Amino acid sequence: MLGIALGVAALIIVLSVMNGFQKEIRARILGITPHLQVTGTDEQLTAWRPVLDIVSKYPEVQSASPYVNGQGMLSQNESVQGVMVRGILPEGENKLTGLADKMKFGKLSNLEAGKFGVVLGSDLARSLGARLNDNILLITPQGQITPAGMVPRLKRFHVVGIFEIGMSPYDNALALIHMSDAQKLYRMGDSVSGISARLNDLDRTPIVSRALEQLLPNYTYISDWTRQNANYFSAVKMEKKMMFIILSLIVAVAAFNIVSTLVMAVTDKQADIAILRTLGASPISIMKIFMVQGILIGLIGALIGVLSGVVIALNIGSIVPFIEHVFGVQFLSKDVYFISEVPSDLEQSDVLIVAAFSFVVSLLATLYPSWRASKTQPAEALRYE
């Protein structure tokens, strides 16, 4: 029973944690990444207003906004950090990603055209030693020709906000500026890098992408979050399947223990089986006795495992910090992993699948010992009694 319970509980807990990781990371990725992006074939979208009009008016699109992407280096005092610069419209970006809710200091609306303000990720600001209202220098790779030769373009920006998403790739390397400032900085004129869109139902993103491809001009290219992060989510899905297979071996070992337990019981009860047979018990009835015994072991073990697994999975957010506090360790470092806490998302389907799997394995484990008990010959069993 304990073997079955341990296997079932382990399966439920691990599957819940993997579901939690997948859900949490997807939420954090989409917390800064739009559901859908429309770009030009040459990384620039010149006639972007008709494209924005088509995308924003599509029924399943909740909001859409243009953006400008670029690269650069931020410098303050003696600190220099490479960054990804994103030019946005603050009111449009808030509808797309809800970034305004992630602000630690300042407001996203403080980004105003022509003011050359910048909003930094929390880790980026910390590494630069930058605080709210500080001035920092942005260096772009697009140089300008001077009598002294090619010189990088420099522009001083004013820190108007600091955000924290909880994912190191963004908190450590993303700087947001106003879209018009980005167009001037990267000499793009009226062009933009693309159009970002948020949908009412993110699970329908691939369908909406294919529909918009038929409506948009040929010089545009559509990319969505399922394509941008396809490798990652495929890997997580594969890991979940492999963990299910590996941890199922615990249930299989417990089922083997059921086999050995029933075989020993059959051997020990040979005389009793023989007496029952002489009193008229059929081989089927003898077989049912041992099958019921094995199934009860499996059912009670599975029930204990399901209850304990569900309780632990629902409280993993409190259990892990307690263990970390007691032993003075940190299982997930923010500098290494996307998230720093162990999430859990208990799904009813996983619990039902694990419970059904353990029951089937327990049932199969009873077949051979029960069949062996039904084949007991009364005369042979009672010869030496």
What proportion of the residues form beta strands (DSSP E)?
Answer: 15-25%
Measured as a percent range, the helix fraction is 40-55%
Strand count, sense and barrel status of the largest sheet are: 6 strands, mixed, barrel
State the secondary-structure class: alpha+beta
Mean pLDDT: 84
Indicate the multimeric state.
single chain
Uncertain parts: none
Domain count: the total is 2
Shape: elongated
Number of extended strands: 10
Distance between the termini: 33 Å
Largest sheet, order of strands side by side? 2-3-8-5-7-6
Succession of helices and strands: HEHEEHEEHEEHEHEHEHHHHHHH
> Helical element count?
14
Radius of gyration: 32 Å
Keywords for this entry:
alpha+beta; elongated; 385 residues; single chain; 53% helix
Task: Produce the secondary structure layout.
Layout: H1 2-32, E1 36-40, H2 48-56, E2 61-76, E3 79-88, H3 90-97, E4 103-106, E5 117-121, H4 122-128, E6 135-146, E7 149-163, H5 168-171, E8 174-178, H6 179-185, E9 194-199, H7 205-215, E10 220-224, H8 225-228, H9 230-268, H10 270-278, H11 283-314, H12 316-327, H13 348-374, H14 378-381
Parallel strand pairs: 3-8, 5-7
Antiparallel strand pairs: 1-9, 1-10, 2-3, 2-6, 2-9, 4-7, 5-8, 6-7
Helix pairs in contact: 1-9, 1-11, 1-13, 9-11, 9-13, 11-13
Description:
- The chain is of the alpha+beta class and 385 residues long.
- It has 2 domains: 2-24 and 232-381, no CATH class; 42-218, no CATH class.
- Helices cover 53% and strands 22% of the residues.
- It is built from 14 helices and 10 strands.
- It has helices at residues 2-32, 48-56, 90-97, 122-128, 168-171, 179-185, 205-215, 225-228, 230-268, 270-278, 283-314, 316-327, 348-374, 378-381; strands spanning 36-40, 61-76, 79-88, 103-106, 117-121, 135-146, 149-163, 174-178, 194-199, 220-224.
- Strands 2-3-8-5-7-6 form a 6-stranded mixed barrel, surrounded by 4 helices.
- The relative contact order is 0.18.
